[in-house]
Amino acid sequence: MKGQIKFRGWNTKNKKWLHGYYFVNRGQHFIVGDEFVNPFTEPADFMVDGDTVGQYTGLVDLKGKEIYNGDILAGLDGRVIGVVTGGVRGYCYDVVYPRPIKGEKSWSLYGIVVVDYGGKVLVVGDIQNNPEMIG
Questions:
Q1: Per the database record, which ranges form the YopX protein domain (predicted)?
Q2: DSSP readout, 56-103?
Q3: 33: domain range?
Q4: What is the number of structural domains in the chain?
């Protein structure tokens, strides 16, 4: 399917990322995968921290790992490029730099991944679990 809409969020009970469809019910945040499951039989298994929910951007890194809002990207030299952030300019995902580059605080995710780095970027962490990587 083209233009997949899916999310990920951190499940604090099982200490792992969940990927799939996102919804909120009575103030609780849930992510349920494609397999048919009733999330209300064991809600804690599908409950996620709402602050960690990020949407899939439609791009993947060099190793084929999906890039989500909140991911930290690095070049092949291991140097952190920045964190993927939605809504910076209101219409697309940007990569927000840890330090401004030539006066710019961020740039288009697509422009960085595809144009500047030719797809040779790696997801090296995420803002929720690795905030120290952005300094």
A1: 6-134
A2: EEEEE-TTSPEEETTEEEEETTS-EEEEEEESSSSSSEEEEEEEEETT
A3: 7-52
A4: 2
